[in-house]
């Protein structure tokens, strides 16, 4: 069918995922994919992505600006700062299992994969993404069998349905907020056990931890690069070496001071 890539998105609040198959990885495909999702869910106020060229290109940047969307780029080679990266491994495992079981192309298995991932309760929120977006669980084949056996019962009126939906969403929101705060507290306690804060100042020269070009399982220090600005407690804007002298954002965990050799 010609599809080779997937544009993935996830709502940080509800954990509701989106996946759009793409034939080519370019700015036009990214913009079309974003628009197909925005046309159904609305235009977000903020969008976080990695620093891939398709997300930093003039076309993508202009499109997002025209839509009133603020774009935030996560740190280079630090997937922990982007919530969708952790979800990628889950998507790959489920998609691979379905393709192996049914001997079909991955794009044919994508709808069933997304249905499953939207229906399963998330460990952080305690609810399925579908419940937090629609106020109800998705109607599955098992539920249809149960309805055929027991009967569907009497349908509520429009007013009863709307009032019930609002009540469920409000209840879910309170529970999710407490659940996410607890998850963040656990993550911080785990991180603080071994974390060591690294601080740099503008003008400092640093080395950067990167995967080896010959072996992606091996890592090596590259550089030096110059610190231009401290963006947060952990993120820094760096001026890279080379002809382009581009500016990129790095996490402090991937940086160490550069010491020039004494002559």
TrEMBL record:
The answer on whether this UniProt entry bears the keyword Amino-acid biosynthesis reads no
Name the enzyme group at the top EC level: transferase
Q: Which InterPro entries match?
A: Integrase_cat-core, Integrase_p58-like_C, Retrovirus_Pol_polyprotein, RNaseH-like_sf, RNaseH_sf
Q: Where is the Integrase catalytic domain?
A: 1-137
> What are the coiled-coil residue ranges?
none
Q: What is an annotated GO biological process for this record, any one?
A: DNA integration
* Protein name in UniProt: Polyprotein of retroviral origin, putative
């Amino acid at each position: 069918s010609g599809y080779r890539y997937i544009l993935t998105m996830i709502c940080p609040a509800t954990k509701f995922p989106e996946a759009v198959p793409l034939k080519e990885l370019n700015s036009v495909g990214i913009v079309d994919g974003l628009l197909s999702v925005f046309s159904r869910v609305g235009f977000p106020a903020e969008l976080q992505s990695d620093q891939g060229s398709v997300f930093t290109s003039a076309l993508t940047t202009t499109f997002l600006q025209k839509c009133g969307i603020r774009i935030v780029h996560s740190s280079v080679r630090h997937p922990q700062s982007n919530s969708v990266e952790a979800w990628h491994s889950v998507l790959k495992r489920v998609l691979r299992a379905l393709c192996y079981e049914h001997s079909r192309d991955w794009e044919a298995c994508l709808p069933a994969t997304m249905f499953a991932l939207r229906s399963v309760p998330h460990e952080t929120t305690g609810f399925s993404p579908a419940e937090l977006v629609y106020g109800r669980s998705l109607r599955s084949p098992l539920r249809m069998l149960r309805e055929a056996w027991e009967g569907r019962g009497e349908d509520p009126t429009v007013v009863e349905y709307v009032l019930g939906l609002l009540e469920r969403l409000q209840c879910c929101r309170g529970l999710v907020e407490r659940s996410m705060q607890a998850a963040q507290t656990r993550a911080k306690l785990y991180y603080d056990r071994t974390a060591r804060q690294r601080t740099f100042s503008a003008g400092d020269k640093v080395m950067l931890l990167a995967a080896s070009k010959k072996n992606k399982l091996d890592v090596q220090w590259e550089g030096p690069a110059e610190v231009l600005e401290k963006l947060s407690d952990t993120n820094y804007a760096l001026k890279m070496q080379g002809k382009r002298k581009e500016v990129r954002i790095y996490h402090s965990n991937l940086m160490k001071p550069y010491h020039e050799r004494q002559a």
